[in-house]
Each structure stands twice: as structure tokens, then as C-alpha cells.
């Protein structure tokens, strides 16, 4: 094969490939407005007295090709009706043509504008065309305004390789994409009503595909079947003051290397998701948006160096999430209310400043991440205000100072601290890689962990009240710690994971759930005694085999278990001594309390009949005495 022939074959292949990707409409018209101003055929229902303004005198059932510049085509509310193919009105290499007041339906393309400039489509109805309602290719300064563009198969308005156009005040309904920009830039899209567009995982309200430096503002985008606004490889766009409601997917989706976009001042209501950044989309700004009743508020996935600030996020399934990961982002000055998990950080090197998170499931959650900086964040009235999930030292290495508050109390998040005491005003305590830290007389509630102690030795947690937390006290990979005389109540009272040689005594552990008043995971040689286990769904849950001591020998004894008589109804307190075989009772039941074969309380404590029981009995006796006395006097 000769070199010239090979080149020809390659060219034909490329033409075929690109021809499949981008279709170029053929102009096959039966009516022409010719360059000299004449109408061909002259019998067409179009008339002009000055070769400038062309007015329809009736309906037209053919395609129209415009070959003259600087004219006005006034449809006078008549129709251009097709047979399901061709193009309704086509402009090739034309300028300053205005098309107005015309009804165009049932073509492949309603209006096609190619390599043209300064043309206007206004006040027309463009409906039921199989591909695009208005297709603008390789053209500049087009003006598409005040039209009703509905029920077109692919796009209501499609701009390809075009620039500097205005699309405003249109009503665009029921296409795969309401407005679709591909490889186009510097367009203004504003004040449109875009409703019920989007197919099966395609299209939506407005789709910018490799489209840069465009402005979308003041549009009302409703009930999109895919995304409200989608940016795909699209950068330096401005999206502002739009209202996006009732969509089945994301209200605004910034995807695939879409950078430096500014998304501000939008109202986003009742969508499956609010705003999502994905696919390595960097350096975007999301600010001043009002977001309500969405499945998610703002979610960044695989996206870095974005700024999210000043948004008002209310009653959403979640507030702001960074995941997969998304690093080096800034989240500041947002108000997040009643929105599931307020700020969830599953990424590193992010800055989180001055946010207010109230009334949700969780305030700020840091999950398996490091080198995040938190300052001046306010968390209040959340089910769990602050949450850390970490299972290695690097993931504890976040910079969280006491300017962050939970229910008006500071968070004390200490790394590498030694020989110190946590202030008693603590709202949450996190220790990692510390030694000899004392935590006393704190009142903590509504966090994931009330006190979290990781990779730490010789910590003391004492005389504190910790309630309404997922883990009241959590030890991970810690040893030689003392947990004593605390009151803990909620889902899990005390959780030990990979922690050994700790002493837990004198605590009241009550009202905990099915993960146990005490949970133990691969933790050995810990000693529990003098603790009061009451009203727990499960007193102790051992997930992985662990052997621990559940008493301190005789006569110090073990723990009080409120279900002892239920499990051992025939056991009494008749004997005493180390083997409970000596005559005379003591403070311990005459049988052990078995958790499992490796965890046995040899000296379970017998409850004392304190005033809590005596007082009600005294009151009953007193009432009966008074009643009998009165009866005698009446008789």
C-alpha cells in the first residue's frame, strides 16, 4: 500500500470516527430565503415587502433555509411543521438574523445555526423535535430568549464549539438535557425555567461538558431526572442565584477535572443530593448557598483545595462530607442545622474553622484521617457533638484546640501530653500517646466518646459523670490506667479494645445497650471490682476472646450484678470465706457469676437494703396504719 493511499484510509477512518461522535446536520430545505432577498418558491406562506422583514402568512410544512443576513423572520404565531426528520429553520454562515413568534415542531432539529454570529431566536415555540430544539454550532453571540422549548428528544438547547451567547428567559421542558454546552465558552445562561429534563443517567437541567468561563444565574431548575446542573471537565464557570428543587439526583454535580468554578448564592431544596464535587475537581468555591431537605448537603469526593464557606445547610440528610479522600480543603463559617452528620472528614490536611453545627446526629466527625485543623467550631444539641474514629497513631494526629466547643464546653484533644490534668469544664476528652494524665470531676454528654484514651499509659478517669454518649469511656491500646468511681450511662459504658492491665473499680454502669455496659475486645488482665451493673441490656459483651479479672479477691470482692438472682435463683448468702464454705453470711453470694469461661466474678456482691428500699416500705406501713386508725374512729 502506497504512503498516499495509507494516509487517505487513515483520514477516512478519522472522519468516520468523529462523524459518529459529532453529527453535522445536512441542510435539505424546500423553502429558501435567498441571498438576494427573494423567497423560493414564491408560493410559500412567507412574504416580505422590504426584503428585511419576512412574515408568515400561514403554516409551513417544509424546511426553511436562510441565505440572507440582517433580516427578521416573523412567524406571526404560525407553524413550521416537519415529518420527523431534517431541520425546521437553518442558518449557515449567517449574521444578524432574528427568528421570532414561530412554532417549530417534529423535525430532527428545530433550529440549526452553524458558523454564524449575532443571531436571535425569540418568543417561539420549539417542540417535539427528535434531537435538539435549538442547535448552535461553531457560532458566536447567539441570543436565545423568551422561547418555549419542550419535548425535544436530546437537548432543548445545544451549543457546540460556540461562544459568547445569551440564553435567557426560556421555558425548557422535558428533554434529556435542558441546556447542553459542549466545548463552548463565555455564555450567559440566566432567568430560564428548566423543568423535568434528564434521562436515564444522562442530561438533566444544564450540562456543561468541557465548557469554560460560562455564567449560570437566576435559573429555576425543577424536577430534573438526572442532575440539576452538571459540570464535566468544565472550569472557571460561575453558578449563582439559581433555585434547584425536587431533583432525583444531585442538584449541582462538579465532576471530572472541573476546577476553579464558583458556586454561590444558590437555593437548593428537596433533591436527592445537594452539591457534589468528584473526579479530581480542585480549587472550586462553594459559598453562600441555602440548602434544605436534600439527602446530602455538600460532598467532596477525590477533590482537593476547594473552599466551602458561608453556606446555610438546614434539615438535610447530612451537612458537609470530605471523602475518598479529599485533602487540603477549607470548610469555614457554615451554619449546619438539623442535618444528620454535620461535618464528616474522611480526609487529611483540611482546615475546619468557625462552623456552627446544631440539632443533628453528629456535629464534627473525623474518621481515619490526619493533620486536620479545627478552630472555633461550635457544636450544640447534637446527638453526638464530636466524634473521632482512629485505629492508629497517625489518624489521631489532628490539631483540635479548646476553641472548639460542645454544648458550650471546650474539647480537650491532647496529643503527646504528659503529667497533666484535664480541666473540669471539659465537654469532650481525647488523649493519644500520653502518659500520666488525670481526668476528674468532669460532666460530659452527647459525644461519640465522652473520654477517649488511645496509646496512653497511667491515665486516671475518676469521679466523673459521663452520659448519653456512644462510648462513655473508651480505651484503645492503653495500659495501666485507672477508671474509678464514675457514673456512666448510655450505649456502651466502658469499652476496652486491645488494652491490658487496667483497673476499673467503684463505677456505676447503668442503662447501657446491647453492646454492653462493659465491652471487651482482645483485652487481657484487666481487673474489675466494686462496680455496680444495673439496668443494662447486656452487662458485659466480649467480642473477641479475652481473659480478665472480675474481682479483687476476698474480702475485697467482685461486682454487683442486678440480674444475679434471675440467673441463679437458688443461690443465697449463707456462707462466707474465700471459698464461701464457712458458716455465716458475708457481702457475697455463695456462687460465682460467670460471663464466660475466661471471665468469672468469684465474689458477686449481695445488694444492701438501703434507705431506697426501706423508705417505701416505711411509707406503706404508715399509710396502712393511718387507714386502720381512721376506720376505727368512723366505726
- Helical/strand content category: mainly beta
* Low-pLDDT sequence parts: 1-21, 610-635
| Shape annotation | elongated
- How many runs of DSSP E, i.e. beta strands? 70
Q: Report mean pLDDT, rounded to a whole number.
A: 92
Q: Report the radius of gyration as a whole number of Å.
A: 37 Å
Distance from N terminus to C terminus (CA atoms, Å) equals: 132 Å
> What amount of the residues lies in strands?
35-45%
Tally of alpha and pi helices: 3
For the sheet with most strands, the description reads: 37 strands, mixed
Share in helix: under 10%
Question: Can you walk through the features of this model?
Answer:
Helix content is 7%, strand content 44%. It has 635 residues and is mainly β. Residues 1-21 and 610-635 have low confidence and may be disordered. The chain starts with a helix and ends with a helix. The relative contact order is 0.03. Among the domains are: 29-175, no CATH class; 414-549, 3 Solenoid (Pectate Lyase C-like), CATH 2.160.20. The chain has a 37-stranded mixed β-sheet that branches. The chain has a 17-stranded mixed β-sheet, with no helix packed on it. A six-stranded parallel β-sheet has the order 49-51-54-57-60-63, with no helix packed on it. The chain has three helices and 70 strands.
Amino acid at each position: 500500500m502506497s504512503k498516499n493511499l495509507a494516509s487517505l484510509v487513515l483520514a477516512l477512518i478519522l472522519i468516520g470516527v468523529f462523524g459518529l461522535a459529532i453529527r453535522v446536520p445536512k441542510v435539505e430545505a424546500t423553502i429558501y430565503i435567498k441571498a438576494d432577498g427573494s423567497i423560493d418558491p414564491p408560493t410559500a406562506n412567507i412574504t416580505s415587502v422590504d426584503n428585511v422583514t419576512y412574515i408568515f402568512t400561514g403554516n409551513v410544512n417544509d424546511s426553511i433555509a436562510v441565505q440572507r443576513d440582517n433580516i427578521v423572520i416573523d412567524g406571526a404565531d404560525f407553524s413550521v411543521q416537519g415529518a420527523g426528520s431534517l431541520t425546521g429553520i437553518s442558518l449557515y454562515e449567517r449574521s444578524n438574523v432574528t427568528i421570532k413568534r414561530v412554532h417549530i415542531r417534529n423535525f430532527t432539529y428545530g433550529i440549526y445555526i452553524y458558523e454564524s454570529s449575532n443571531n436571535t431566536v425569540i418568543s417561539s415555540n420549539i417542540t417535539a423535535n427528535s434531537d435538539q430544539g435549538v442547535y448552535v454550532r461553531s457560532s458566536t453571540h447567539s441570543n436565545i430568549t423568551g422561547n418555549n422549548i419542550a419535548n425535544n428528544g436530546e437537548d432543548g438547547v445545544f451549543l457546540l464549539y460556540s461562544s459568547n451567547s445569551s440564553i435567557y428567559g426560556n421555558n425548557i421542558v422535558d428533554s434529556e438535557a435542558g441546556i447542553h454546552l459542549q466545548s463552548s465558552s463565555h455564555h450567559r445562561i440566566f432567568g430560564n425555567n428548566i423543568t423535568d429534563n434528564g434521562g436515564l443517567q444522562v442530561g438533566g437541567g444544564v450540562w456543561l461538558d468541557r465548557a469554560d468561563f460560562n455564567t449560570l444565574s437566576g435559573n429555576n431548575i425543577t424536577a430534573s431526572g438526572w442532575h440539576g446542573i452538571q459540570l464535566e471537565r468544565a472550569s472557571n464557570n460561575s453558578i449563582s442565584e439559581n433555585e434547584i428543587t425536587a431533583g432525583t439526583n444531585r442538584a449541582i454535580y462538579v465532576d471530572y477535572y472541573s476546577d476553579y468554578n464558583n458556586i454561590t448564592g444558590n437555593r437548593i431544596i428537596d433533591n436527592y443530593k445537594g452539591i457534589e464535587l468528584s473526579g479530581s475537581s480542585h480549587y472550586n468555591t462553594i459559598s453562600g448557598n441555602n440548602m434544605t431537605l436534600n439527602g446530602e448537603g455538600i460532598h467532596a469526593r477525590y477533590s482537593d483545595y476547594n473552599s466551602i464557606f458561608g453556606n446555610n445547610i438546614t434539615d438535610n440528610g447530612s451537612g458537609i462530607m470530605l471523602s475518598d479522600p479529599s485533602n487540603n480543603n477549607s470548610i469555614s463559617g457554615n451554619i449546619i442545622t438539623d442535618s444528620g452528620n454535620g461535618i464528616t472528614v474522611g480526609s487529611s490536611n483540611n482546615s475546619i474553622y468557625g462552623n456552627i453545627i446544631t440539632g443533628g446526629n453528629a456535629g464534627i466527625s473525623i474518621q481515619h484521617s490526619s493533620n486536620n485543623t479545627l478552630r472555633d467550631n461550635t457544636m450544640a444539641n447534637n446527638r453526638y457533638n464530636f466524634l473521632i474514629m482512629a485505629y492508629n497513631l497517625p489518624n489521631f494526629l489532628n490539631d483540635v484546640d479548646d476553641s472548639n466547643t460542645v454544648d458550650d464546653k471546650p474539647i480537650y484533644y491532647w496529643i503527646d501530653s504528659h503529667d497533666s490534668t484535664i480541666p473540669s469544664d471539659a465537654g469532650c476528652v481525647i488523649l493519644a500517646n500520653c502518659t500520666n494524665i488525670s481526668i476528674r470531676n468532669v460532666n460530659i454528654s452527647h459525644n461519640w466518646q465522652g473520654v477517649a484514651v488511645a496509646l496512653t499509659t497511667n491515665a486516671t478517669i475518676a469521679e466523673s459523670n459521663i452520659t448519653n454518649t456512644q462510648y462513655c469511656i473508651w480505651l484503645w491500646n492503653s495500659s495501666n490506667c485507672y477508671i474509678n468511681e464514675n457514673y456512666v450511662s448510655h450505649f456502651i459504658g466502658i469499652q476496652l479494645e486491645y488494652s491490658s492491665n487496667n483497673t476499673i473499680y467503684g463505677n456505676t454502669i447503668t442503662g447501657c445497650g446491647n453492646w454492653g455496659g462493659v465491652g471487651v475486645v482482645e483485652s487481657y488482665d484487666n481487673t474489675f471490682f466494686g462496680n455496680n451493673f444495673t439496668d443494662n441490656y447486656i452487662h458485659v459483651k466480649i467480642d473477641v476472646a479475652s481473659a480478665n479479672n472480675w474481682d479483687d479477691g476476698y474480702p475485697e470482692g467482685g461486682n454487683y450484678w442486678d440480674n444475679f438472682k434471675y440467673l441463679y435463683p437458688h443461690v443465697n448468702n449463707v456462707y462466707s470465706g474465700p471459698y464461701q464454705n464457712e458458716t455465716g453470711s458475708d457481702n457475697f453470694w455463695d456462687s460465682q457469676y460467670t460471663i464466660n469461661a475466661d471471665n468469672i466474678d468469684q465474689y458477686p456482691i449481695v445488694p444492701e437494703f438501703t434507705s431506697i428500699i426501706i423508705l417505701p416500705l416505711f411509707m406503706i406501713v404508715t399509710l396502712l396504719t393511718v387507714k386502720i386508725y381512721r376506720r376505727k374512729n368512723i366505726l
